[in-house]
Write a structure and sequence with these properties.
The chain is built from six helices and two strands; from the N terminus they run H-H-H-H-H-H-E-E. By secondary structure, the chain is mostly helical. A two-stranded antiparallel sheet has the order 1-2.
């Protein structure tokens, strides 16, 4: 991951730390210590662990950072399936997705717009002036898969 993407990921993580409900997600989750819950989860994940991975430059691509962030919320949903406490995770997840799109300038697309590296492709511009995106092709929102244009 390049320096620019590293700083963008760090900024995104900082934005989440500033969120009022982030403290619950900063440290190792309690379910890590409960065998019945933790054995059904892919891997326990929390914000401080991601912060350390960023500091150690563990992520070769932004995609790995995003996968770990989303894993926090997947694990939280699995742990709090039938509990109102799960709404806290949904709110922080929504904030993450919102800030992620803002920081990396990801635009929602429609079915008639081809996607170049996760960004909307403007057929009126030459390819070298298009917004290339450091994440590769990114699926954003709940839109159906779109045709991809690879450079």
């Amino acid at each position: 991951m390049g320096t620019k993407e590293q700083v963008q990921c760090e900024f995104l993580l900082l934005q989440l730390y500033c969120h009022s409900e982030s403290s619950f997600f900063a440290k190792i989750p309690y379910y890590y210590y409960i065998k019945e819950i933790s054995q059904n989860l892919k891997e326990p994940m929390w914000l401080d662990k991601i912060k350390n991975r960023l500091k150690e430059r563990h992520y070769p691509r932004v995609e790995g950072f995003v996968q770990d962030m989303r894993l926090i919320f997947q694990n939280h949903r699995a742990s709090y399936k039938y509990n109102d406490f799960g709404l806290m995770g949904l709110r922080l997840e929504a904030e993450f997705e919102k800030v992620f799109k803002e920081v990396f300038a990801i635009q929602e697309t429609n079915e008639s717009s081809p996607v170049v590296y996760g960004c909307r492709w403007d057929p009126g511009k030459p390819l070298w002036e298009q917004n290339s995106h450091p994440l590769g092709a990114v699926k954003v929102g709940s839109n159906p898969p779109l045709p991809r244009v690879w450079l």
